[in-house]
Amino acid sequence: QVQLVESGGGLVQEGGSLRLSCAASRSINVMGWYRQVPGKQRELVARTTSGGSTTYADSVKGRFTISRDNAKNTVYLQMNSLKPEDTAVYYCNWRASLASVAYWGQGTQVTVSS
How much is the pLDDT for 52? Predict the structure, then answer.
């Protein structure tokens, strides 16, 4: 079992920035952020692996940056130049590998006003 504790969501104006944090109870293997809006499927935003590779959704490339602190088992999502379409509940995700079962955080709301 893996516990994930998220923080950092909130309300921000268009063009603003937020940083999300997710602390895991186990060391980072594959961790990432997904987001979901009502009526739509949860989608990958960004992901990082223990090997150092990162993956971003096309819609956030150049605006969002995922990073990690291995000593703290924590990943961060720095979100800049936020747009109203970034409004969603953001979920932290942990996996032992890309093929393993996923553990999810409780979700944190990000709202971007125009």
Answer: 85
